[in-house]
Task: structure prediction
Amino acid sequence: MHVESYLFFNGRCEEAIEFYKRALGAEVLMLMRNKESPEPPPPGTMPPGSEEKVMHATLRVGTSNLMLSDGYCDGKPAFTGFSLSLDAANEAEAERLFGALSDGGTVQMPLAKTFWSPKFGMVADRFGVGWMVSVTH
Result:
């Protein structure tokens, strides 16, 4: 069994993809727009003008996949009740990743030494996605 995260950005997916490419070095493995779907969405489920919005995308972040979509393009994304955990190779990488994710976001716990990690911090990025950045080895 394998679990992957799927994030819905409600109209801001393309912006999120570009941000994660810069901040995390993410690689786009797949991207399909609504207009490229082999079947149209059910009537009334997508607002007019959403043909160019992202129906599905897969990003490669390190050794993990992260799936994204614009979903129903119905407003501001809401990411509550979870955080994505990002394991940095060393303290310098943790600082770089944390700084990049903090750009336009909200630091919830500054990057600092803890009893389990030489560097650990929590941030909600500019889209509201929670990230926990740590060095675990």
The radius of gyration is 16 Å. Residues 5-69 form a domain with the Signal recognition particle alu RNA binding heterodimer, srp9/1 fold (CATH 3.30.720.100).
